[in-house]
C-alpha cells in the first residue's frame, strides 16, 4: 500500500527517516510530506512513533487529465467507496488544491466528491447511503487536486498527530508539539540521545513545557502515540487487524520500558508561575514528570551559581513579540539572552528558535548553522551556537592576534601608503571637530584620491563602512581588486579598527527593482548614537546602513524646529528624522514609506528611543498617492525623496522629473505658517523655476553640510519652502478711518 505522511516545510527529511524506521520501502520526498510503501504493520508503527508528521493518508486512486468538475465527479464515481464504507457508517471529506484552474473554493470540490461517494453508494446498496458527519466520522476521505491531476486518499491516522494528548491549556505560546520535536531533533542534544547517553538539557523559557516534555519522550524512547493509542482513525476501518496492532503496541511498550531506565536530566525554567504549574501538569499527563526539574527563574537575572557545572545543552523558544505583554523591550531581552549564554554557559551547545530572525542579531553570538522551520504560517529560524570555553576563547584570540601581527608586519605598497597618509591627515582634522560637536559617526574619506575611489564612514569609533564606487569598464578587474585591498590595508592601519569590523561593499547605480534587493541576510544590527539618540544600523544586508550621515545637520535642525509641531516625514526610510522630531517635542509624527522593511525599522528606532505613544503613525504607501488621498495638515514637513524609484505600488519616480507635482502635493498639506524642508541627493538636480514663483524658497545647502562632507558640496541639496505671506496694502479714505485691504497671492 502507498501512504502519504504530511510534514511541515523543511521537515520532510525527518519524516522520511521516521518512515524508514517504521519499516517503509520506496520512501520519496514530496510537496508537503513524504510518500512511502509499506504493509499494515508499517502504517501502524508510523502512526504510533512519528514525532514530526501531522497526518498519515492511504492512497486509494489517482487520475490525470481532469479539467472540470464534471470530469472530477465522473472519475470519483469509478472508485469503489464501498470497500471502506457501508450505509451504517458516517463519513466526511477534506480537500486541498494547488494550481487547479477550475477549483476556486475547496468547499465546492468537497461537495462534488461527497455527491460522487453518495451516488456510488446508493447504486451499490440499492438506494441506501451513509450519512455525512463532521465532528467524529467513522471514515474520512481526502482528495488533493494539482493542475489536472487528482489523488484520492483514505485518512488513516485521524486527528492531527501533533496532538499527543498531554496538553490541557497554554500560556499564549504557539509552539506545537511536532515543531518542538523537530527543533530537538535538529539540535546537538539529539546526537547525544542517538549515542545512547542523553546529555543534560535546559530550556530556560519553557512556557507550557512543550520542549522539555518532547525531549523526555524522545530520550525515553516513548512513542507519542502511546499517550492515547485509542484515538487513531484506522481502529474504525474494516481493514484494521487487531492482532497486528497488538504486536506493534507491544513493541512500543517494550522500547518505552527500556528507555525509562536511562539516566536523564532535563531542566525547565520560566519566570511565569502559572506557566510552570501548567508545565508540571502536562509532564504528569505524559507520565515523564520524574525526568524534568521545573524551577521559577528569570533567565536575565540568573548567576553563575544557577548554572549546572559542565558542558551541556540548551534548547529554547524565547518570546519574540507575539507572546510579549510585559511592555519590556524585546530587543533588550535578546541582548540579555546573548550576554547570559556568553558569560555563564561556557562550553554549552545552544539552540534558539525565534519567529523573528532579526531578533537573533541581538543575541550577539555567531551561529554555527541555522534551520528554517515553520510554526503554522509563521516562519521561524533555529540558530545553533557553540559557546566557547575560556581556553577556546583564548586560543581564538591568540590566533587572531598572530594573524594581525603577521599582516601588519608586511610593508604597505606605495599606493596603500599614500591612502594611509591621506586617511591620517583626514582623521587629524576631523576627530577634534567631531569630538567638540559630540559626533561619534562621520565620514573620513570620500574618493579623496581618484585611484582609490570609495567612501569610508566611521561609526562609533568601532566600525567602518567602506563603499567602493564601481570602477569604470576600462579599469582592469585585477587592478581594481588590488586597489581595494590596498585601501582596506591602509584603512585598518590608519584607524586601528579590527579588520573584522570593516564592512566592505561596492556601490553602483541601482536600476529597476535592484534597489529593493538585499545584499545579504546576515540580520546583524548595531547601535549608533547621534545627538543623544540611538539608531539601529546594518552594515551588511543593504546598500545603505539605515542612516544617511550627510543629513546629520538637517536632523538636528528638525529637532530644534519640531516643538509643538505636527510633523510629517515623507519617504521616511528608517525614521531617523522622525526620532529627532519626536525628541524635539513634536505634537505628533507621521512617517510614510513604500517599504515595509524600512517602516518596521523606523518603528524599532522610535521604540528604542522611548517614542511608542498613540501620537506616532506609520503608513506603508506610495508618498504621492498618500498625499492625494489624505487631508491632514502639518506644521513641519521633511521630504527627502530617492533619486529614482521603481516600486511595484506605482509607476517609476524620478526626482528631477516629478519634483514639481511632489512639492505641490506636499505643500497642500502644509499649514499656512508651516515649513517644509526639501532635500535630494541627486547631483544633477535643479529646482524647477515654477517652485520659487509659487512659494517662498530659501536654499540652505551650505548650512546642512557637515565638516566631514565639506569636500563634496554636491552630497545633497536642501531648501526651506514656505507659503508666501499675504501682502497688506493701506488705503486712506480719510485720515481718521484707515481701511486694510488684504490681497493674497494664489498658493
Q: Can you walk me through this structure?
A:
- The chain has 747 residues and is an alpha/beta fold.
- It has 4 domains: 154 residues, 2-Layer Sandwich (VC0802-like); 192 residues, Vaccinia Virus protein VP39 (Rossmann fold); 95 residues, Transcription Regulator spoIIAA; 192 residues, Vaccinia Virus protein VP39 (Rossmann fold, 3-Layer(aba) Sandwich), CATH 3.40.50.150.
- The chain is built from 19 helices and 32 strands.
- Strands 2-3-1-4-8-7-5-6 form an 8-stranded mixed beta sheet. Strands 11-10-9-12-13-15-14 form a 7-stranded mixed beta sheet, with helices on one face.
- Strand 22, helix 15 and strand 23 form a beta-alpha-beta unit.
- Helix 2 runs parallel beside helix 8, helix 3 packs parallel to helix 4 and helix 12 packs across helix 13.
- The protein is globular.
- The C terminus is likely disordered.
